[in-house]
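Dear colleague,

As promised, here are the two records you asked about, laid out in our usual form so they can be pasted straight into your sheet.

NAME FIELD: protein one
SEQUENCE, THEN STRUCTURE:
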Amino acid sequence: MQQVKIVTGTNSYPVYIGSGAIHLLNDFIQNAADGFTSIMMITDETVAEHHLVSFRETSGLDEFIVKTVPSGEKAKTFEVYYDCLSYALENKLDRKSLIISFGGGAVGDLAGFVAATYMRGIRFIQAPTTILAHDSAVGGKVAVNHPLGKNMIGAFHQPEAVIYDLDFLKTLPAHEVRSGFAEVIKHSLIRDENFYRWLKEEIHSLDAITDYQMLEFLTKGISIKGTFVAEDEKEKGIRAFLNFGHTLGHAIEAEAGYGKVTHGEAVAIGMLFAIGLSMDLLGLEFNIVELKLWLKKLGYKTSIPKGLERERLIQRMKQDKKSVGGTIHYVLLEKVGKPALIEIDEKTLMTYLEIFEKEVGLDD
């Protein structure tokens, strides 16, 4: 079992990581200084089917109500958000109630936003069930999607704790493992070259990750995320570096249709594109061919999905949260572990998108 402490300007909280960590949940709730009058869990259909019975048996919680929502990005809509608020009101949650997010990143974003806005904000706990959620469950960014952009309607609302039981990760399908591991790679590239080298040396197949490897890279990734959040809780400065690979990644997700390409798989393509930009614009020294081969070996596609128009992708990137006045700001790397936020004009982006497509080809 590992523990990482996240410290922000508005809250500090523990992240417990390990097999069987869910056993700590009841003690944490019982020991809360201000207590809780009621508990509402928000989970999705897939997680409920695979893990809800186990959660009830092992968490030690006696009474809580459950709101089940659609799986994946379908959970992050205005309709589902409104439905969760209605369910909370119908069950008479009050300002001392607790919301537990039990699921992946999408459920965590939704549940956190419900908690942030219900009665102007109540407490919540993250209980992640995916690798991807090692990133989204930490840091307090909560949101739902809009048809014009991902995570555009949201808030900053820190959890009381993150209880990360790795036993729940054992049923993840291959595409969800890839989605989550891309964010682990991102953390290494923006903060720690030694961690990046360790990942390449240790992880040769996402089907054969050992418990030791899982605990190591998730703990390291969460620790890296915590350092950025501690310095910049509301993303007014260096926290934007956590969006490395996300500008193009979010555009791919939106243009393909939310859920058609997983978040992490889109971010992997976005990171390759950003590294190419970094090499040309900032003089980054990097073996991009080696990274492409490693990603392909792990099952990732390394090119923009067929049918997505460059013009449309650029328009999506202009709507990115880092953009100001329609000007695109891109997270690049001066070197591994040293990111930079650079303003890039549309013409330059168009040129490099054309080059990127020619270099790697289009995936069918």
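NAME FIELD: protein two
SEQUENCE, THEN STRUCTURE:
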Amino acid sequence: MERYFSKDYSEARQRFRAAAEARQAAIAPYDNPSRGPAGEALFTDAARLGPASARRVLILESGLHGVEGYAGSAIQLAALDRIDLPADGDVALLLVHAINPWGFASNRRFNEDNIDLNRHFIDWDNPGDLDNPGYRDIADIVIPADFSEEALAASDAKLEAYRLEKGEQALRSAIKLGQYSHPEGLYYGGLTPSWSARTVQRIAEEHLHAAEICGLIDVHTGLGPFGFGECLSGMAPDSAEGKRCSAWYGHVAHTRSPKTSYAGSAASILDGYKRAAPWPVWTPIGLEFGTRSEQVVRDAVRFDGWLHLNGGALNPRADAVKAMMLHAYSPDEPAWRQAVVKRGLEVVNLGLAGLSG
């Protein structure tokens, strides 16, 4: 199972395309105009198993939060190696590799515009109120002043004071709900459609035109018990979509529940696909794999935010920060990698079975 993991974005892309070609999948590349940290070309690649006329399509997507793409890419490689489609010829598996290729290549959670794409899929014709006053309160303290334990401790002390004054939920919402006022800050949602959002629209138009029923499995890492893969729905459990998610996948966590530990953004990729292709009946989920403690993961993002403000890949501390990001989002322990691929394949097979049923 470990063999499906790649060392970087370029290797992951090369292996994905080779595996797709070996399965005789139709491959569509989408060229991102940005370049990676080594000047490499960046692409999202969509590979399709099954006929273009299929009415039932399951999408397996990787790399929305760039650095999380290692796990998703590994599951996609394993799926190309091990998954067989139902024999009726009316089901397709569409693998969308590295929907945020710049973030994947840069080992960042965010994209080339510093956008967190799971805070970004908004109806831009009618965005509504995007204000997050909590983030404005902490914008100047959440990112440490420098790359040191002392700076992190000083930032933590100020955040703790905010938590004591406003409450735990207020702090969580301030940090993770998404913000649209500080373009260089954390969890920025953007103000206009990004390249990735436009690419999702293109993928929907080019690959889902015949679809009547669609599933989506969007792979993430960073939250939950080590190696545990949890299915997430953005809809209420008693909604028609929520019931389908449970019927297909069993236990599903609902990210907009008041008691959830997830951010519960109303602007996620799950909403993005439904808006890009409103004609099929959708059953979309996130598949979240736990890694380290929530504090370890959050601190890595905060230091990566510091790096973004201080030269990025050109900063002499860049390698140390990127090592923190990989430690937080793509553990190299064999047991974790084996668990990710095993659970990923299980969920893909559940999705295909639910789609077929």
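A couple of things worth noting about protein two: The chain has twelve helices and eight strands. Residues 307 and 316 are 10 Å apart (CA to CA).

Best,
R.
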